[in-house]
Amino acid sequence: MTTTTAAPLTTADAEALVAAAVEAAEKAGVTVSVTVLDAGGHLLAFRRDDRAVLISGETSTRKAYTALQLNTPTADLVDAVQPGGLFHTLPTALDRPLLFIAGGVPVRREGRLIGAVGVGGGAPEQDHGFATAAVESLA
């Protein structure tokens, strides 16, 4: 059996993701915090801006963690946690609470999950756009 593996997310990749998300946010006049996790959920890069809301750092981390654990953008999961939704009880079933607000995006290479980026500080739709712009810049 042959197994192919995608190159893992490096610290340089993570720093580039942070820079791209911050650049996209600054162009929109928004101050954000950004978190990048590797495929194992380990912190590779983090930027907290003191001009952003105090909890934006924790928010960006939880968005990244959610996108990583569920391997999908958090923007696609909002309806799933509503009463009767697929993941209605999931946020309380894990050690680290998930956050189902747009702004977390998985990072893939060669179709494989290699990490996630989370952005917090703007409106959820803005954060999603900044995280998506960062991931697209890595390609």
Characterization of the model:
This protein is globular. Strands 2-1-4-3 form a four-stranded antiparallel β-sheet. Helix content is 34%, strand content 19%. It has helices spanning 11-27, 56-70, 124-138; strands at 33-38, 43-47, 104-109, 112-120. The protein is an alpha+beta fold and 139 residues long. InterPro entries: GlcG_carb_metab_protein, PduO/GlcC-like, PduO/GlcC-like_sf. It comes from Streptomyces werraensis. This is Heme-binding protein.
Observed structural traits:
single chain, 139 residues, four-stranded antiparallel beta sheet, 3 helices, 34% helix, 19% strand, GlcG_carb_metab_protein, PduO/GlcC-like_sf, PduO/GlcC-like, Heme-binding protein
**Alpha carbon gyration radius:** 14 Å
Q: Please report which band the strand proportion falls in: under 5%, 5-15%, 15-25%, 25-35%, 35-45% or over 45%.
A: 15-25%
- Please report the distance between the alpha carbons of the first and last residues: 29 Å
Query: What is the number of strand segments?
Result: 4
Side-by-side strand order of the widest sheet = 2-1-4-3
- Structural class by SSE content: alpha+beta
Averaging pLDDT over every residue, what do you get?
86
Number of helices: 3
Q: List the quaternary state of the chains.
A: single chain
The main pleated sheet reads as: 4 strands, antiparallel
Helix content: 25-40%
How would you sum up the global shape? globular
Protein name: Heme-binding protein
